[in-house]
Amino acid sequence: MEFVVKNTKAPAIKAATLVLPVGEDLVLGTTAQSVDAASAGAIATVLKRGDLQGKPGQTLLLQQLSGIKAERVLLVGTGKADELDNRQWRKVVTAVTGALKNLGGNDAALALQDVQIKGRDAYARTRILVEVLAGGQYVFDRFKSKKADARPLSRITLLSDKAEQAQVEQAANHAQAITTGMNFARDLGNLPPNVCHPSYIAEQARQLGKDFKGLKIEVLDEKKLRELGAGSFLAVSQGSDQPGCIVVMQYNGGKKGEQPYALVGKGITFDTGGISLKPGLGMDEMKYDMCGAASVLGTFRAALELQLPINLVGVLACAENMPSGGATRPGDIVTTLSGQTVEILNTDAEGRLVLCDALTYVERFKPRAVIDVATLTGACIVALGSQTSGLMSNDEELARQLLGAGQNADDRAWQLPLFDEYQEQLDSPFADIANIGGPKAGTITAACFLSRFTKAYAWAHLDIAGTAWISGGKEKGATGRPVPLLTQYLLDRVE
Length: 495
Description:
- The protein is α/β, with parallel strands linked by helices.
- It is about 35% helix and about 20% strand.
- It contains 15 helices and 19 strands.
- It has an eight-stranded mixed sheet with strand order 7-8-10-9-13-17-14-15, with helices on both faces. Strands 1-6-5-2-4-3 form a six-stranded mixed sheet, covered by helices on one side.
- Strand 18 and strand 19 form a beta hairpin.
- Helix 3 packs across helix 4, helix 8 runs antiparallel to helix 10 and helix 10 runs parallel beside helix 14 (about 440-450).
- The longest helix has 26 residues, at about 165-190.
């Protein structure tokens, strides 16, 4: 979908559909007033009849109004002017997206520049607008014998005041890149595990390196990982016939020699739990256990689309966790790439086993900051539900930056503590550390485990178990989060 920003009078814009806002008080903004005047009061007449109350997300279609160039006008309710926030704004834009899908014509013009959102400027308003509109076009029908009908809507014009035009254009540009990255991540997450295995993720990274200049890809196979001493990673991958790998991505868009920022993603392409086998019900959703790696790839895609002037490293720890005669057993002790030993009490706590070696490996790039992203614990879903990602960090400044990025991108995280008392739950009588800390504070103790391998740099951990996918039912699927948060973090570093 193409987005174009224009400083044009609404009555003069030629489009299949012109979208106008109506508040709950039924007072029209300046732009809607101009259309109403051009159409001899047609909008005011409809509102007097009570056909639209202006509640958030309500829509009303008007056909062939005289005096304007658009073929039809779609009125959308925006609620009370002083109550419109991010959540309500998403509801409004989602309603517009749904209405436009059911209309003819291949274009639409949105005259929503008069809408004000609490605590948000024109840039933020437009970012959400374009992300919702573009994301609403997403369809995953690769494995359907009957494909979804082609959608005629291919061009959206955003009307803007001249004073805000530069902000709106920048926001639309950023939002399109972010949505492209989100959809890339969603595609990877939605693919079945017989297609999207570790080697497939490596192939996708290589293709990204071919599509964009400045991106270098290296794939560490199991032989190389064995030579390096990544015993913790190999303890997970050894149970599968699909070979595991660590994918290393380097994008040098910044100054030569400038320290990079690093993103590390958990890429468990299918998680049976290993010998600590999961229950069968719902196990199909364990294909989403690679959404951390997918979101890192999606963020790289967004950064590359925008050609951000930043140095960036990505490390994807990709493996299948399968039960077999060669699989790791509960009670096994392995030596990590850092030299620390781990007693594996539960093979279903495998994400931290692949991540710890990836976090050690990333040290060699001398990163300014490292963020790992993982669908790590069910405990995070219990704590925060599906709305908010869990955040833990060994650096308060980094945590503050990520929380701020999440707030600005409307892809929020919530910080949980990493007090030393939690570390004691990982004590092992036989090794340096156990891979689980018991039933209490499971999200925190998982991060405590990872923190043992991040002492050389500023580090933050995002647990996206609740936010990376929608579970169960017809709406089941990958969300593409936290690509908006991560991309916003990188945008903030560039600024």
